[in-house]
Specification:
alpha/beta, Urease, subunit C, domain 1, five-stranded parallel beta sheet, 17 strands
Length: 444
């Protein structure tokens, strides 16, 4: 009986074990290092085996198949550290059917679409920070085993929240230390790579305030200790200053948003707390929504440059799926630069620092022997202009060329993703004030 060969859509026809060379006018081996002129990368299977100037290519590699990109730049594949893969397809168009009738299947299919769209804009690794039904875990395995094509996925599964807390409909609700330990262990059993917790309320769930903490410091500490015991890193969604403080005290590894909103619903940037975040090496994403000039009294987060200047390890997490579409990724990089972050630091945040934030230091984010062969080829020089990342000539994930899907262009401030957190914050404050008016708290 003939053997069955499964289709492998989106990957190049070369067997993954075929060594080959990719060369270009310049190669950025790691953000912050001088690029290699007329450089080359030798790929063998899933890994890089040699990098350097083409003129110094070892004789053993001289006859390998070569793909040359004159005038272009090879650099490490980009990394998205904050995505919700199952949330995007329903936002493509208002004509998409109501997914609630077949929610689990819809989440899985949407996850595939979002992951492929991210890969199509050069994102070779995605950290999923919240996925119902553990769809991100299943997709990670499907891609890793060759069932489909897409980026490497670092999966959190459903985020942990309180009963009725932020994102409760997509998360695992926990209300005690015992609940938290059990949930972390169940996530471990399901195969997640990290644990995500909603340390504060948010903008997208009714009856939760973004500035209010949802867990005590002790509860968060138990979560972190249990996750670390099981070999997992931790990420905390935190808009409110008090929730950020508790997450830092508990020892979380990553803070999403870091909006620094005070109890009155207004900006409350705590410089001492920022310095503690920097000292502890906690990773922070502030790209959701992409950074923009602050409005007096209504800012959503400190400018990225402020955090960078105080030593915070910034990474490129855009809340892809929940807030922005995959095609907004490079727009977010440009907005980081516009906020005052040096261009080379933007690239570092999107590659080597992002890899460390996703638990992949020594695996991804750098082009060096032994690292995963994750790279992109940009038409032009991103060190001169980040717009070069908008035109990619080749995308390689784990040694195999990914054939990109057509990408729906991102138009800032348009359509289903026209997110204005300033307006959201004003609305949240108004709703909170109305609740207090209707249900006043009387002193004992």
């Amino acid at each position: 009986m003939p053997s069955l060969t499964l289709p492998d859509p989106g990957l190049d026809p070369l067997p993954s074990a075929t060594p080959r060379i990719v060369s270009a006018a310049r190669v950025i081996l790691a953000a912050g290092e001088p690029p290699v002129a007329d450089g080359a990368v030798v790929i063998d299977g899933r890994h890089i085996v040699w990098t350097g100037p083409g003129s110094q290519l070892p004789h053993d590699y001289a006859d390998l198949p070569r793909t040359d990109h004159p005038g272009a730049t090879i650099l490490p594949g980009l990394i998205e550290t904050h995505a919700h893969l199952g949330s995007y397809a329903s936002r493509l168009t208002p004509d998409v059917p109501d997914p609630s009738r077949h929610r689990a299947a819809w989440t899985a299919l949407s996850s595939v679409a979002t992951a492929r769209q991210l890969a199509s804009v050069g994102v070779t690794t995605v950290q999923s920070l919240g996925s119902p039904y553990f769809a991100d875990v299943a997709l990670r395995e499907a891609i890793a085993t060759g069932l489909g094509a897409g980026p490497r996925i670092v999966a959190a599964g459903p985020q942990l929240t309180t009963t009725g807390g932020h994102a409760w409909s997509n998360g695992a609700e926990v209300d005690s230390v015992t609940d938290i330990r059990r949930a972390v262990r169940r996530h471990h059993k399901a195969g997640t790579d990290l644990i995500k917790v909603m340390a504060t309320g948010g903008f997208m769930t009714a009856r939760t305030d973004p500035w209010k903490a949802q867990f005590t410091t002790e509860e968060l500490r138990v979560l972190v200790e249990e996750a670390h015991r099981l070999g997992k890193h931790t990420a905390a969604h935190a808009h409110g200053t008090e929730g950020i403080r508790r997450a830092v005290d508990a020892g979380v590894d990553y803070i999403a948003h870091a909006s620094f909103i005070g109890e009155d619903g207004r900006t409350d940037v705590d410089l001492e707390l920022i310095d503690r975040i920097a000292e502890r090496g906690i990773f922070v994403d502030t790209c959701s929504p992409p950074t923009r000039p602050p409005v007096e009294g209504e800012t959503i987060s400190p400018r990225a440059a402020e955090l960078f200047q105080r030593g915070v390890r910034l990474v490129t997490g855009h809340d892809i799926g929940a807030v922005l579409p995959p095609s907004a990724y490079t727009f977010g990089l440009k907005q980081l630069e516009a906020s005052g972050l040096p261009r080379v630091e933007v690239l570092r945040a999107a590659t080597s620092t992002a890899a460390a934030a996703a638990g992949l230091a020594g695996v991804a984010g750098v082009l060096a022997p032994g690292y995963s062969a994750d790279l992109i080829v940009a038409a032009g020089d991103p060190l001169a202009d980040l717009s070069a990342l908008d035109s990619l000539l080749e995308i390689v994930i784990a040694g195999r060329t990914f054939r990109p899907d057509p990408v729906i262009p991102y138009v800032p401030g348009s359509g289903r993703h026209a997110v204005d957190r300033t307006q959201d914050l004003r609305a949240a404050r108004g709703e909170a004030l109305e609740r207090r008016r209707r249900h006043p708290v009387h002193p004992a």
